[in-house]
Amino acid sequence: MPAGGGGAPVPRPGGPATRPTPAPAAIEVRNNQLETQSRNDGALLDTLDSLLSQLALGPDTEKILMHRQLSMSGVGAFVAAFDELSRRVVSLSSTSGALPGHLRAMTAIQRRGVELAALQRGALARAVAFVESELAAGHHKGVDLAGLHAHARQLRPLLALAARVSPADLDRLRRGYCAAITALLARSAREIAEAARSAAAQLTKTLSAALPATPVSQASVAPRGQSFAMPRRQENALLASQADPEARAAEPDAPVLETAFVTGLQKLLDTFIPLAQRELDVASEIFSCSEDGSDPGPADQGPRDLGEVLVSGPGQHILNLASEMQGPHALVGIPALAAVFAWQRRLTRSGQGKGEDEVASALLGLLERVEAQLTGAVDAANESSLAGMRRYVAQRSTSALSASAVKSTHVLPFLPRFLESVRRVEAALSQGGPGPRNSPGRGAGLATLSGVRGGPPRPSPFGAAPGAEPGAAAAGQAAALALARRGWATQLAGALAAVGEVAARDQKHGPRICLENYVLLQRTFQSRREGPLADVAQRVDTECHAAEAAYIEQQVDYFGFTPVLALSRKLDDLCNSQPSTRPPAPISLSDATSMFATSTNGLAKKLGALAQRLLKHFGSSSPELVPRIWQRLEAICLSRWERIPKQLRTWYPTFDLPLTVPQLKAQFLSTKPMQTKAAP
């Protein structure tokens, strides 16, 4: 202690410093601050406890949300629990404004928010997985579309839950639903396609047993890639049946084979195109989960993708069935295209109703692929037909075959097959046009190849105006007919060229070959002189008339009347010229007498041989030609025979023919060819 004993203690050197003693006032202030802070901390703890208690879930809520197996019976409880959880999560968001920022920043609050968000994500994942499994299992349980619709509507509370929390998951569920619907549609489409194939296979067996053994009937049911020869006996039976109405009526209806394919494809289109549009509308209604009922739409993809999903299932079966219309069945693509064209027009001009825009582009894309398949098959069939004609002509052009082959050639084998394809396509169009159909019984109203003796032809769709049917069906029919017309015009040009090329190899048999084949064409197209095939029919008529005139001229020469007709034509020219002075006689009296004597010598025998020749040429293939050509020959000869004496008496007043007109007419009558029906 320092001297004096008073004052502050003096620290010793090297010892610890001593604190100054606070003033009483400072101590009081500090105590007040601690008391205030203690009260504030207590209130904050009370607030935190209150918030945590508010964020706590009910006793069963967390258990329900974390339960791994969700069932349809527990959907209501799950949705209620999820709603409770969502309210807690929303209250912690910065946008809700439910909590001030300093409270949200508290560690306990943030930790609880992370826990609730994780619980929400897990519950949502379980809900989405459950909906996906229910939708995917729906089409495996044998339910139909209506059942799947009802089941999806029962899941709407879960869909609404996904729509509020995760639109991307809602789009995922929508696609899963569309995939389930597509699976059901694909199953139905497969059944329809298989039914069409089964019907075609059954008809193939039936027709193989029922049809006569002709190349055309065989070609109707032949395996793809096979061809058939044309034996003369079978050719005669075929062509005779075409001219004989009784035989034609008894022949089985080969086009029903193609009708099985066409009907199957049309049923697929008529069923699933409207159904795809309707199903997208139903999907929009089921997935309209907002309060106003509007569809929130997919989050990451355009709505067209959903249309493609719905169309993909049945669309693949439609494409598969269309791909089978090739080879021998390729021309059936023409009536099938009528349905495709009709639906393209309907979809293009359809209204803008809900759902139609989303699926129309997918349907139009499918129809474009079907059109490309069918059109390509038809074009390939036409090209194959032309190639077959060229091969046939090339085979007949060899030196080893040309001499004998032309003599034995009658109707070229590719021609009946071409004409049969015309009949088959017409029959398929008549039996099953595009669009809604109330068709008569099978075989009613079919066009035929029946000839002149067969009576008037039955109605053909190629003779009807496109406006006879309303709207899209008529447009589709017209487009298909235009395609058929182009193909047949090309094939007809190739057939005429091939016939002419084969006929040109032999001057003796050439006119007969041309006439025999052209008459078959004329018989086919006689019912098409009006309508889309009028120009084709007109060309056939022109070629047939020219071939008939050339053949008649050849037969006149055959029985020795060519000099007589040539003299008569020359006398016509001289008598019609009316010169100022009488021209010199075109033939001397002795030469005229000798010429007429030679022409009439053995005339009955010559006419009899001509009659047998006509029967040999046309008795089997075109029997109606025999009396027609005979009558034309008789009319030409009698007309000239009657005029010649009057013309020659201008120079030789005493001239007379060795036969009178009645005598010549009697010669023709006595040798007239008599046709008898060939034995079967």
From TrEMBL:
One of its GO terms (biological process) is Golgi to plasma membrane transport. Residues 10-23 have a biased composition (Pro residues). GO terms for molecular function: phosphatidylinositol-4,5-bisphosphate binding. One of its GO terms (cellular component) is plasma membrane. Residues 1-24, 429-469 are annotated as: Disordered. It comes from the Eukaryota. PANTHER family: EXOCYST COMPLEX COMPONENT 1 ISOFORM X1 (PTHR16092:SF14), SEC3/SYNTAXIN-RELATED (PTHR16092). This is Uncharacterized protein. The lineage of its organism: Eukaryota, Viridiplantae, Chlorophyta, core chlorophytes, Trebouxiophyceae.
